[in-house]
Amino acid sequence: MNWSSKDITLFNAEREYIDTAVIPLMHVALDDGIKRAAEQGEFIQLLSVHLERQFKGRILVLPPFTYFKEPDYKRDELIDWSKRAKEAGFSYVFYLTSDPKWKALNKDLLGSLIYIPSIPLENMDEHYKHSVIDNQLKSLIEDIIKAWQIEND
């Protein structure tokens, strides 16, 4: 489910079945890194949309967690998001990112970090763009299913 009033109405009715929160991590830059940050953001947003379609009724995709500075400046705030998700009843919290800097903080986080290098989508045909995302989605789905299985073993 997405962060929309329509989906949240359904989420409230089906809450007992939705045990996973997905938090897209998006770097915002207004300097020389603006284009790369935008590419990563576009990629993660599109990946989140496709992921939600695959697991509708099991996951809630939260609004993107955005940050300007290095990830370590926002680590505590992200941990707070995770705590709140756990308190709200989510058994699993996944972070989606294309920013490799988050990998160094993975051990400190309260959820599962999934790093997927972004692919520039800017000049791709729409059909090809979605095909590329679907290919990336396969490994993402495997990672999520493994995490669910580990927790249940």
Structure description:
With 153 residues, the protein is of the alpha/beta class. It has one domain (5-142): Rossmann fold (3-Layer(aba) Sandwich). It contains 4 helices and 5 strands. Strands 1, 2, 3, 4 and 5 form a 5-stranded parallel sheet that branches. Helix 2 (34-54) packs across helix 4. The longest helix has 27 residues, at 126-152. It is globular, with a radius of gyration of 15 Å. The relative contact order is 0.18.
Which features would summarize this protein structure in a list?
4 helices, five-stranded parallel sheet, alpha/beta, 153 residues, single chain, Rossmann fold
Let me know the largest β-sheet. Answer: 5 strands, parallel
Q: Describe the global form.
A: globular
Tally of domains: 1
Rounded to an integer in angstroms, the radius of gyration calculated over CA atoms is 15 Å
Instruction: Name the average pLDDT.
Output: 91
Q: What's the helix count?
A: 4
- The structural class is alpha/beta
**CATH topology, which one?**
Rossmann fold
Unreliable stretches (pLDDT < 50, length at least 5) are none
- The CATH first-level class comes to Alpha Beta
Q: How many strands appear in the DSSP assignment? A: 5
**Cα end-to-end separation:** 26 Å
Helix content: 40-55%
The name of the CATH architecture is 3-Layer(aba) Sandwich
Series of secondary-structure elements, N-terminal to C-terminal = HEHEEHEEH
Approximate strand percentage: 15-25%
